[in-house]
Design brief:
25% of the residues lie in helices and 16% in strands. It is α+β, with helices and mostly antiparallel strands.
């Protein structure tokens, strides 16, 4: 069931004007928008709505405003502060290995035959 006063999937202002070419130009905070965007706004965020008709609209907004203009000005909200806190810690850990006894091929073969451990025991 579709909600009343909702456009079916009005994605952009171009789409909404194709669905209803006689609707007025809608300006929100200085930018062209859709009627659906105005419907979706919280009513407490709207500071004023101005309706311009005829020559006043065409003079201010050009030929797109032939059917009138609805100018919606939202409340001036304080700009939110962006706080970014970043902490980083780098740590290098090397494994503790016992000292390694290096052998050549002959020494390795002798150690393997005698069954000796290749690591020093402390």
């Amino acid at each position: 069931m579709q909600m009343p006063h909702r456009f079916p999937m009005a994605i952009s202002y171009v789409t909404s004007y194709l669905l209803n070419p006689n609707q007025p130009l809608i300006i929100l905070d200085g930018f062209q928008t859709t009627l659906q965007t105005i419907y979706d706004m919280d009513i407490n965020r709207i500071a004023s709505i101005t309706v311009l008709k005829d020559a006043a609209a065409t003079t201010a907004y050009g030929s797109k405003a032939a059917n009138g203009v609805i100018v919606v000005r939202p409340n001036n909200l304080l700009p939110a502060e962006l706080k970014l806190l970043m902490r980083s810690m780098w740590e290098w850990k090397l494994p503790i290995l016992p000292p390694i006894t290096l052998l050549d091929a002959k020494g390795l073969l002798e150690a393997q035959r005698s069954g000796r451990s290749l690591h020093r025991s402390e």
